[in-house]
Write a structure and sequence with these properties.
- The complex is a heterodimer of chains A (about 325) and B (about 650).
- With about 325 residues, chain A is of the alpha+beta class.
- In chain A, about 40% of the residues lie in helices and about 20% in strands.
- Chain A has helices at about 1-10, 25-60, 75-110, 220-230, 240-250, 290-300, 300-305, 320-330; strands at about 115-125, 125-135, 140-145, 145-150, 155-160, 165-170, 175-180, 185-190, 195-200, 215-220, 280-285, 290.
- A five-stranded mixed beta sheet of chain A has the order 3-2-1-5-8. A three-stranded mixed beta sheet of chain A has the order 4-10-9.
- In chain A, α2 runs antiparallel to α3 (about 75-110) and α5 (about 240-250) packs across α8 (about 320-330).
- Chain A is elongated, with a radius of gyration of 27 Å.
- With about 650 residues, chain B is an all-alpha fold.
- Chain B has helices at about 5-25, 30-35, 40-65, 75-110, 120-140, 165-195, 210-240, 255-285, 295-310, 325-335, 335-355, 360-385, 385-390, 395-425, 430-455, 475-505, 540-545, 585-600, 605-620, 635-639, and strands at about 535, 550-555, 560-565, 575-580.
- In chain B, strands 1-2 form a two-stranded antiparallel sheet.
- In chain B, a hairpin with a 6-residue loop joins β3 and β4 (about 575-580).
- Classes of the chains: A alpha+beta (about 325), B mainly alpha (about 650).
Chain lengths: ~325, ~650
């Protein structure tokens, strides 16, 4: 079964970072097992149906002539018995699948009893606000579009929505769950595999639903603790003149209206937190790779890259644009 | 030289002509606008559906081209979102449900040996309102106001804050139109089937297609009010700030989903159950034997209909409802596999034990079984609450729903079209081109949609206008595009074959396939009054048991339109009923309702003022017409 699924995977040449077929966590693994059971049982039934249909056509080959006199209500004792057997077979198959489904459902729920890391993720059009609690101070540590989780420990992701319904989905780690305004949902994730995974919004949420992705990094507990401590710190002070110029443009200009850079005067809340933007892999919710050029392009032409995004274009002269991208890049 | 004129034949011809003249429409435009002939009304529905399928198919092709490779810029997100919204809304609300009603409006009176529907003017009204719904969606589209939130528009995204303008209102009101039309058609079909069966056609002797349409119409009457309610609540939220779905105002966006899917899931079976009626009729005729397990098939249809109302939550497993409740809906959803499996068995068993002839209608049935069973089995996977969390809102669902709707309903519909085409037109469709169309459509469809299962399992969400090359979804998307294109070409071949066979087709005769049910007793194409005499039925397969001659009864009026009313269970003749004459009032009432529906997008007062012309036109519609008394002093002059 697994080999067959792996073949399906290869068929598409998938990168494997966003698929339920390559589980990297406990919940996704139990769902994958259930999927295997489903494939096995449903394949048996499909083969039975096709076989019966093929047999019926094969039997008919001798008399494909037209004009045969119709037979009215023939004696069908044998067929009637077969129908009962067939129905019993279906019911048996369903018991197996409902049972398997119930067991998988319990597996998803059972993690709840354990000591869990609390993370809050809020869906926005079209990005993800991610908040941790600093274990040292209890203060909220905010980032965006990049979720870090320690391996082997259950994380309870509290899901919320700021505007419309979104859906949180990291298929390699667990199934999706909707983020609905006015409702509190939570999904438990127990990662078992180190590395990068990709998540994407799975409920249509408007113009840029297609570009609402995020990265997930599963770290060792030590790496995770170090990462969280780094995220909790305020932004780095500019190390050179260009970065200092960039900071003046960002903090004194339009950017600060919507973005927070902790440790500076930039305190807008509408957009993603930029305190450690330089440490992230992607920009604009998985739309661009985070490079200095990508950053400049995004600031100057967001509507060309992600039409409909809430990010307005910011016209900067070339020296300022360069300085801003250098400054943001330095915010590790 | 010539034989002497046969007085019996001449009298029969005069009798037929007299009935035809009583039942025919006025010539020209007036007849076109006033007709209450069920066959003309159904033909209009079907022509509209074919045109809409073409338009929505072109939208699909456009979207497939956009997705055929990563990061294409053929369409911007707005255009893509409009395209899938228009495609889905058209296919679900303006094609799938109405086309099944149209088939019933055409076929039910013929299968009952009747001259018209129970409520002929209501039939005309339902078409005019349906046309209003079509125009409600497509005229604004031409004006650049296209709904852009999918075929179900969840608030808050469709609420006033996130969807200013009138796109969402147009979608919601289009639904009101089509659902009122569908309710009108359903009431009509239920009354016709229950009260207008020919003498002897007890419920136990009713062909499965009639059972299917009876159950479907009853389901429609229960399910559709839910969606009309929910879209009206959405319009109220948008127009007069009622906050039904606004959490800050005490509302709940999930309420919308419950009400929508309480309609939405039964709707799938409202589309599928008529298809089971087509399949049964085709299998029986082409296997040359009574269908195996008639009772089991009827019970399956009834149990599907009952279960259909108990599993809407399986569209909402990712909402985060209580887990134990989800498990209940998992079991209820999977239980559908039992009646559906029984049906599949009965059909194949009929072919197996008969002497089948694989003409195009039966080929479509074979294509239906091969394709639909995949959709049913993927449906079992999505019915599992935990597994659905990995499958829902991905391309796996896109594949599943197309396998179920196209494989499960459209393939049987195309088979039914080939099967009853000779009856409707008096000509045979070309078998050769029919087979070519079949191969192109079934092959292209499976090539186009099977890879989507894999795409969904590779993590591709639905409703994305593009994707990056790093996702590795390019190859399969290209295959899907090629397959869909082939299927659309096949569709064009099918339509061309149907169109040209009207002239080039071989004359069919009354019963070209040797069918067993009463519609084959009428001439092809049927005259305005369908049957000269009312057939009398003594079995499930009257055309086969009668030995070539069908018993008939007489006694309906020759001077005016009359139909026979029989009892609900045993179809014992009860009385003759006057059948309404053609009338312009259904059209005027339709226009009045249209004015109110369109106006109520803009102001709530439209409901108040719009009610006046509706009341006036309905009053005129039902204005009693004084019966000329056949006795008394006027008698001599009247004659």
């Amino acid at each position: 079964m697994r080999r067959g699924l792996a073949f399906l995977l290869l068929l598409g040449g998938c990168a494997g970072q966003q698929t339920p077929l390559a589980p990297g966590g406990e919940q996704a693994a139990s769902l994958f097992t259930l999927f295997g059971l489903m494939m096995a049982v449903t394949s048996v039934f499909y083969v039975l149906v096709l076989g019966f249909l093929g047999w019926a056509a094969w039997r008919a080959r001798g008399h494909w002539s037209r004009g045969a006199a119709p037979v009215v209500e023939p004696d069908d004792v044998g067929l009637s018995r077969s129908l009962v057997v067939w129905a019993a077979l279906i019911i048996a198959g369903l018991f197996l699948l409902v049972g398997g489904s119930f067991v998988a459902e319990r597996a998803l729920a059972s993690a709840r009893a354990r000591e869990a890391l609390q993370v809050s993720v809020t869906g926005h059009q079209w990005w993800w606000r991610i908040q941790y609690r600093d274990p040292a101070t209890g203060a909220v540590v905010e980032t965006a579009n990049e979720l870090h989780l320690p391996v082997g420990r259950t994380a309870r992701i509290e899901l919320g929505a700021a505007d419309v319904i979104h859906s949180f989905w990291v298929p390699n780690l667990s199934g999706k769950l909707d983020m609905i305004p006015g409702r509190a949902n939570s999904v438990d994730i127990t990662p078992r595999q180190l590395g990068w995974f990709r998540g994407q919004c799975a409920e249509f949420c408007g113009a840029q639903h297609a570009h609402m992705a995020f990265s997930v990094k599963v770290d060792t507990p030590a790496e995770f603790a170090a990462w969280l401590a780094a995220q909790a710190r305020p932004a780095a002070t500019p190390a050179d003149a260009a970065a200092a110029r960039g900071q003046r443009v960002v903090v004194g200009g339009q950017c600060a209206m919507c973005h927070v850079i902790r440790g500076t005067a930039a305190g807008g809340r509408a957009g993603p937190d930029l305190t450690h933007i330089g440490s992230r892999r992607t920009l604009a919710a998985g739309t661009l790779v985070n490079t200095r050029g990508g950053m400049q392009g995004w600031i100057a032409h967001p509507q060309a890259i992600k039409p409909g995004t809430m990010m307005p274009p910011v016209a900067l002269d070339p020296a300022d644009a360069d300085a801003v991208s250098r400054y943001l890049e330095s915010l590790k | 030289m010539s034989t002497a004129p046969d007085p019996v034949a001449a009298a029969a011809a005069a009798y037929t002509d007299q009935l035809a003249s009583v039942w025919s429409d006025a010539p020209g435009l007036w007849g076109f606008l006033t007709t209450v002939n069920h066959k003309r009304i159904a033909a209009r529905y079907i022509l509209a559906v074919v045109a809409l399928m073409f338009l929505a198919g072109m939208l699909a092709l456009d979207m497939r081209l956009q997705l055929s490779q990563p990061n294409l810029n053929r369409m911007d997100p707005q255009l893509y979102n409009e395209s899938f919204s228009l495609h889905g809304s058209t296919m679900l609300f303006l094609v799938s449900v109405p086309v099944m009603e149209a088939m019933a409006i055409w076929l039910v009176p013929l299968m009952l040996g009747q001259r018209n529907l129970a409520f002929p003017r209501l039939g005309a009204f339902s078409f005019w309102l349906y046309l209003g719904g079509v125009l409600m969606l497509w005229v604004p589209h031409e004006l650049g106001i296209t709904p852009d939130l999918g075929w179900f528009e969840y608030p808050p995204l469709s609420g006033p804050t996130y969807s200013p303008g009138h796109r969402a209102d147009i979608w919601a009101q289009m639904i009101t139109f089509t659902e009122v039309a569908a309710l009108a058609a359903s009431v009509n079909i239920v009354a016709t089937i229950l009260k207008m069966r020919p003498p002897g056609m007890t419920l136990a002797r009713m062909p499965l297609f009639l059972w299917a349409m009876l159950i479907t119409s009853l389901m429609t009457m229960v399910a559709l009010p839910a969606v009309m309610l929910v879209t009206s609540m959405l319009i109220a939220d948008r127009l007069v700030s009622t906050h039904f779905f606004v959490p800050a105002g005490g509302g709940d966006p999930v309420l919308f989903q419950h009400l929508f899917w309480f309609f939405g899931h039964p709707e799938v079976y409202i589309i599928f159950i008529p298809a089971t009626g087509f399949v049964t009729a085709i299998v029986e005729t082409f296997s040359r034997r009574s269908v195996f397990g008639h009772t089991a098939l009827v019970l399956s249809v009834i149990s599907i209909a009952v279960l259909a109302f108990g599993l809407w939550v399986h569209h909402m497993f990712a909402v985060g409802l209580p887990r134990l409740g989800n498990d209940f809906y998992t079991a209820a959803s999977m239980a559908i596999a039992v009646p559906a499996g029984v049906q599949i068995f009965c059909w194949i068993a009929t072919i197996w034990s008969g002497r089948p002839r694989f003409a195009t209608p039966l080929l479509w049935v074979a294509g239906f079984i091969m394709t639909f069973v995949i959709g049913g089995l993927s449906g079992i996977m999505t019915a599992s609450a935990p597994l659905d969390l990995q499958l829902t809102d991905t391309y796996f669902i896109v594949a599943h729903l197309h396998y179920v709707l196209i494989g499960g309903a459209i393939f049987p519909l195309l088979g039914a079209f080939c099967y009853w085409y000779p009856k409707a037109t008096g000509r045979m469709m070309s078998e050769r081109w029919g087979v070519i169309a079949f191969l192109l459509i079934v092959g292209g469809f499976n090539l186009g949609f099977f890879p989507m299962h894999v795409l969904g399992l590779e993590g591709m969400p639905r409703r994305v206008y593009t994707y990056g090359p790093e996702m590795g979804w390019g190859t399969l998307n290209l295959v899907a595009t090629i397959g869909s294109t082939i299927a659309i070409l096949g569709g064009l071949v099918f339509v061309a074959n149907a169109f040209l066979s009207q002239w080039w087709g071989r004359p069919a005769g009354a019963n070209p396939w040797g069918g067993a049910t009463l519609e084959w007793a009428a001439p092809s194409p049927p005259p305005p009054h369908n049957f000269d005499h009312t057939p009398v039925v003594d079995s499930l397969t009257p055309m086969w048991t009668a030995g070539g001659t069908l018993n008939v009864m007489d006694g309906l009026g020759l001077e005016k339109r009359e139909v026979l009313i029989t009892s609900v269970i045993d179809a014992v003749p009860q009385y003759r009923q006057k059948s309404p004459e053609p009338s312009l009032w259904p059209l005027i009432a339709g226009l009045a309702v249209t004015m109110m529906f369109v106006g109520s997008i803009f102001t709530p007062w439209a409901i108040v003022w719009g009610a006046i012309p509706i009341a006036a036109s309905l009053t005129m519609w039902f204005w009693p017409q004084r019966e000329r008394r056949p006795s008394g002093p006027m008698r001599g002059r009247l004659r």
